[in-house]
Design brief:
homodimer, 254 residues, alpha/beta, Rossmann fold, 8-stranded mixed sheet, 15% strand, NAD(P)-bd_dom_sf (chains A, B), DUF2520 (chains A, B), DUF2520 domain-containing protein (chains A, B)
């Protein structure tokens, strides 16, 4: 049995909680959260606390709080030489206080409160200062995912950067699409099959093979029309920048 | 039986061909293509030609060629008063020669030669100059899709513009993600579950609700780190522009 305490109960930790609490190999000993009042626990057997002095004994302490709070929070913990990990894609392992053994348990996925996730396919990136801790993280990860990989903080940074492009920025493109349609009272639903197919395509094709559109084929007339349809502002700037890059990359001269 | 002739045999028309040729309500009479040699037809019963003077009689002629060639090609057709449509998202109905009855049959999807598509969920946007032609297009559309909608050329332009954002530009973000990982010998596969989940999320959440990440929460430290990881160049420019926009939109001040 791996004994786990969750420190913080935001998006990542609450989804991890849901995934781990029914695993026979895992025992969730406790959840600590500063805003205790925000938690409504249907799990009678699990202890919830907002008192940092009452955190219980565990094999792994999983911190799930905003990146910029990890360092001071880990310093404020009242125990030493325990195994403390964080779940952040953006923060390195060494932001954690060195008074405890350190590690990372980063599920590479986008989490929203309103939506459940299936961890099975989600890569879980792990790192630890020593090999026995790393083994423990691997064991924990494998209870929920088929893809547990060891990765250094340095490489994880790149992975997180790439994730920002393919998730955060992509989602903002969806937002722009929805705003364009909204102005003409067209339903956003019209774009959903295209959005799904765009994502599905790269299961089998590389993004290069999957690329289509006026910018790729340097269709100047369509590009000009689109630029004219867009009012001066941020969306037009993005359109121009993407078009320039696609043009340079695929560069068919007319 | 709706008799159809395909004019051009690129991505869109060849996928439409595959979807329509087995429908009992549709008879594909002929396929015309200038580069006849490029076509290898396993369909013995269907006539293929590269001779514009030998195009056969049909109820609907479907043009599937590059946008900027539609106008002159439709002018070069040697018949009149027939019903001729194009499949382009970017071109208006009136780019077609007025010597024939005009229409649009635009499947809102991304097509690649290497990948089959299921038309059932794909919105098919139709337009025609008269109501009986429109009815015919609706009937044709409904043989392959559950979502046939009438839409004006003007609104279709906006739809196509939105499609460029959510497909072409999104796919380029995948490309950037893959380039970032490639430099560190990390497999692009790591990002695929995230990419699928990003697309799946907006089935139930609005893009606004689904948005996450350092730019949204104005996490200056992570943003700065990412900008430092990116060399001067196009990717960095895109990162900065997206971050600025997300920041302005979700604008949490620190």
């Amino acid at each position: 049995m791996i004994k786990v305490v969750f420190l913080g109960f935001g998006n990542v930790n609450s989804h991890l909680f849901n995934a781990l609490h029914e695993k026979t190999e895992v025992s969730i000993v406790q959840v600590f959260n500063r805003n205790f009042i925000k938690m409504i626990s249907p799990f009678e057997s699990i202890s919830f606390t907002d008192d940092i002095s009452k955190i219980k004994e565990a094999d792994i302490y999983i911190i799930g709080i905003p990146d910029d709070a990890i360092s001071s929070f880990s310093e404020s913990l009242q125990f030493q030489n325990k195994f403390v990990v964080h779940t952040s894609g953006g923060a390195a392992m060494n932001v954690l206080s060195s008074k405890n053994r350190r590690g990372i348990f980063y599920p590479l996925q986008t989490f929203s409160k309103q939506r459940g996730v299936d961890f099975k396919e989600i890569p879980i990136c792990i790192e630890a200062e020593n090999s026995s801790d790393l083994e423990l993280l691997e064991k924990l990860g494998k209870t929920i995912s088929e893809k547990v990989i060891e990765i250094s903080s340095e490489k994880k940074e790149k992975l997180h950067l790439a994730a920002v492009f393919v998730n955060n920025f992509t989602n903002h493109l969806y937002q722009i699409g929805s705003e364009i349609l909204e102005k003409d009272n067209l339903p956003f639903d019209l774009l959903k099959p295209l959005i799904m197919e765009t994502a599905s395509k790269i299961e089998n094709l590389s993004p290069e093979e999957a690329q289509t559109g006026p910018a790729k084929r340097n269709d100047k007339k369509t590009i000009e029309k689109h630029l004219n349809l867009l009012p001066e502002g941020p969306h037009k700037k993005l359109y121009a920048l993407f078009t320039e890059q696609l043009n340079q990359k695929y560069g068919k001269k007319l």
